[in-house]
Amino acid sequence: MVHVRRRRRAAPVLLAAGILLAVLTGCQPEPVAATATPAPTPTASVASPAETFAPSAEPTETAPAAALPGECAALYSEGMRASLEATVPPANDPVVTMLSSQNAQLAELLASGIPVLRCTWGGAEGPGIATTVASIEPAQADAARAVMAESAFGCESIGDADLCRIERRGITLDDVEYVSGEDHLFADGLWVATSWIDVLPEGYSADIAAQLWG
């Protein structure tokens, strides 16, 4: 009988133990999920001082290039052409290599690929004239004038055009004196550059200015 009673009392104890185990199991904290590594926050790039103060590219308006004369004959009046034919023939001899400016910067601009019309008088040796009419933009004209101002050219107005000129004297290796010079006309998007040696008829550039701009 004693053994039976002990077995009957053990059942509530086991049941209580089971309930306590369940309660304890249900109260266990949930497993904490692993914290994800935060993605790096993108930062705004900082412009360098050069980029900060660089001028913005904005379109600029420029005057359209003026049309060049179609031929050299359009540069001269009948009287000036007759004078040139009498004093320094022939016209447009291909052997003439004289540039229309002896200034390296001006000669480089004339040879930079801008539209030009080249007209010459004289032969390979002796007196000669080389005139180049170029169609240029205002900024190019300003650059050419700045070079002339630094090179002791004197400038004046002739009608609607500006004329800048210089004259030089020297002695050749054969002890022969010579005189040379340059005339440069600017107006209406055109630049008329003339280099000459030992001859330039009176009023040469003024005659061209009258033919081109009236």
Automatic annotation (TrEMBL):
- Keywords recorded for this protein, A-Z: Signal
Specify the signal sequence span. Answer: 1-22
- This protein's record includes keyword Signal: yes
Query: Region Disordered: start and end of each range?
Result: 34-64
Q: What's the protein called, per UniProt?
A: Uncharacterized protein
Q: Which organism is it from?
A: Microbacterium aurantiacum
